[in-house]
């Protein structure tokens, strides 16, 4: 595998400019580097496919004309589908909960969290993602969302409205599906591109409902895609502790042709775990692996 720091497909950087308007707070969010990730995509491809859509950072930055985005987390997909079809409803979800939060922050947060835990739903998930501590949504093994309230003030309904309407426009070409990555990737055809941003290999399984994630199963799907002529890009753990500790992951030989390291900044998870620390030593680097 050849390590590269420059784009494999140099292009005018204005083609896909940075898009900094984050819709959801989410662990491992790629919003700041999404345009850099996209700069490593092939110049020409047919459909864009993202089987771990999460916060949709790369999807929203790319704003593709034809795309499929999926996730195993049903409330998350419900949220994306509603934003695509009924943005005013999503804005009302957020506004209603924000007003409750402004009146009684502690009580409102606990009641919204309890509502979500009683019956997982898109409306509560939306507000919790923007108001929980550090944007680190974590779950117990029984599915209970356990993240406490954040110390920050959630953005105003006016600011959220602007974000929601912007994202509504950028995802109009996307079909959102609830399902496992394996089925989504199996539908990819020759000359499609698949971007995979799975749960981190070395992270806690309680984050974003990732308890059942299987890296060997993902690598098998990537290999099958490559055999069909599908281009696959994989974001996965690179280094931690300011680049001092490379993270070893057992990849099949020959599966990936190129490797790029991208700096994400300070760890969201460690910010949550080490409240009050400056975290200079907790810089996270992602690896971008390409099958082409």
Account of the protein in words:
By secondary structure, the protein is α/β, with parallel strands linked by helices. It has two domains: 2-73 and 173-290, Rossmann fold (3-Layer(aba) Sandwich); 82-161, Orthogonal Bundle (Adenine-specific Methyltransferase, domain 2). The chain has helices at 34-38, 57-62, 74-85, 87-103, 105-118, 122-131, 157-170, 181-186, 215-227, 268-273, and strands at 2-3, 48-50, 67-71, 174-178, 193-196, 231-240, 245-246, 258-266, 283-290. Strand 2 (48-50), helix 2 (57-62) and strand 3 form a beta-alpha-beta unit.
Span between termini: 11 Å
Secondary-structure-derived class: alpha/beta
Low-pLDDT segments = 1-14, 268-274, 276-282
What summary fits the major beta sheet?
9 strands, mixed
CATH H-level superfamily title of the largest domain: Vaccinia Virus protein VP39
CATH class of the largest domain: Alpha Beta
The total of helices stands at 10
* Helix and strand pattern: EHEHEHHHHHEHEHEEEHE
User: Roughly what is the average pLDDT, rounded to an integer?
Assistant: 86
- CATH fold group of the largest domain: Rossmann fold
CATH architecture of the largest domain: 3-Layer(aba) Sandwich
Shape: globular
Helix content: 25-40%
Radius of gyration: 19 Å
| Proportion of residues in β-strands | 15-25%
Tell me the number of strands.
9
- The number of domains is 2
SSE map:
Blueprint (H helix, E strand, L loop, with lengths): L1 E2 L30 H5 L9 E3 L6 H6 L4 E5 L2 H12 L1 H17 L1 H14 L3 H10 L25 H14 L3 E5 L2 H6 L6 E4 L18 H13 L3 E10 L4 E2 L11 E9 L1 H6 L9 E8 L2
Parallel strand pairs: 1-8, 2-3, 2-5, 3-4, 5-6
Antiparallel strand pairs: 6-7, 6-9, 8-9
Helix pairs in contact: 3-4, 3-6, 4-5, 4-6, 4-7, 5-6
